[in-house]
Amino acid sequence: MENIAEVLQDKQELLFSLAKKSFEEVVAEITEETLVANGEFSIPTDDRLSLSIIIGLSGETNGRILINTSVAYGNNIAVAMNFGDPLDSQDDLFIYLAEFANMVCGRAATHINNQFGKREIWISPPAIFSAQDLEIITPNVSSMKAYYEFTHGKFILDMGFSESSYDDF
Amino acid sequence: MTIFNLTGIFVKVFNDLFSYVDINHKFMCEVPESSLNSTEMVNTLVGISGDIEGNIMFGYTDKTAKALAAKIMGTASVDKLDIFVKSALADFYSEFCKRVTNEIKTDNLYKPSNGESKDYTLFSSNPTYVAGENMYGMISKVPSKKLFFKVDGEKFGIAYNLEQK
Fold first, then answer.
1. CATH of domain B6-164
2. Is the ipTM of this complex over 0.90?
3. Distance between CA atoms of B46 and B160, rounded to whole angstroms?
4. Which residue in A34, A74, B62, B156 has the fewest CB atoms around it within 10 Å?
5. Can you tell me whether residue B103 is helix, strand or coil?
């Protein structure tokens, strides 16, 4: 009999591979670059603000998707979405990045639900934060990370799965 | 269109939970926010999905975080915000959001204001702890609302945006 922990691990790896596929597809559509996950790196925050996008996952699988980058790199994606024109304000940066996160996670939810043939996950709208020394922690979550470095900047896709159930209904 | 009184639900759940942990608390006011929210020193974000989707963000001070964590963990005091403290706070706010979604479900299933009952499917995601210097955040693309409370003499805010699909 297969170990329950192994089955869960396989399922989480499948979900993460579909999330990575969605990220790569959406970035390719926006930047016309083909993405391949890189080796591990950190995004230095000495001279730039950190920026993180958080999207909650619930349903059969609970957790969250986190996209980590810096304000400067996030701005590059927002400008690419704005057909290369500079942004008018910081509000625009957040709005474009919220749409970017919606595209990535919406597509991930579609891939995942199609793969499982049912409504496996639900996503909540993205929330975006920028700060000096930004600290984001989701307790009771085990996460998988993919690192992407391309001409628009460095991005870390972090998908966390709950070790306990947070949904009641 | 929202057919339930969200402010009333948040205030009720807030009073229930803070009375339970026995910390001085009081609802102060409700203010409309722009979509770009300036955040507090320490924040916890919970995503809501299902028939209603959005985000709820709790913003509070370092002092409130420590006082609340000490009550939840049953210790005399908490000196620093370590992972155990953050985990305790996450559980508290998860309970808060579960109660909010439960109130919404109950209100609309048994006491519908427009005469039609609706059984909502609602989920809350894992709470995420967010902190940092000079932080700015956006929890929705449309303006969200913010409720201000006083907890143990300190400012405590709940910013939320919940939309029916």
1. 3.40.1550.10
2. no
3. 10
4. A34
5. helix
